[in-house]
What we know:
Layout: H1 15-41, H2 46-67, H3 72-98, H4 119-133
Helix pairs in contact: 1-2, 1-4, 2-3, 3-4
Amino acid sequence: MASTTPTRSRGMTGIGRVLVVVYGIMALAATGRSFVQIVREFDDAPLAYSLSALAAVVYILATLALIFSARPAWYRVAWIAIGFELVGVLVVGTLSLVLPALFQHPTVWSVYGYGYLFIPLVLPFLGLWWLVRHRRAAS
């Protein structure tokens, strides 16, 4: 009979690998976007472009944390980074709809990640779900 208790396998497989790949792609995309925005036109929209840079840092951190999540400290970092990502995309997404004057230039999280096919909205839910399913046994 299969156990319903979440366990950690020796290596990351399945959805965990997919999450790492998608987070890595988002890290590269957000880093590239924010770099170009900041270098070319930072004065046009400093808030929006700074938020894109923040999103890039969060995606990089989440990618690394998921890769090393077998270690308790990195597992906690993954929770923090992905939780922060979720709050960020919800807050920035909502503000970009309610106060569009703040976001005349798009960010990674504007309109809940519309420019990225809403992946920024879905990804943290999948990441948190994966973390719950693969939590470490209490020491």
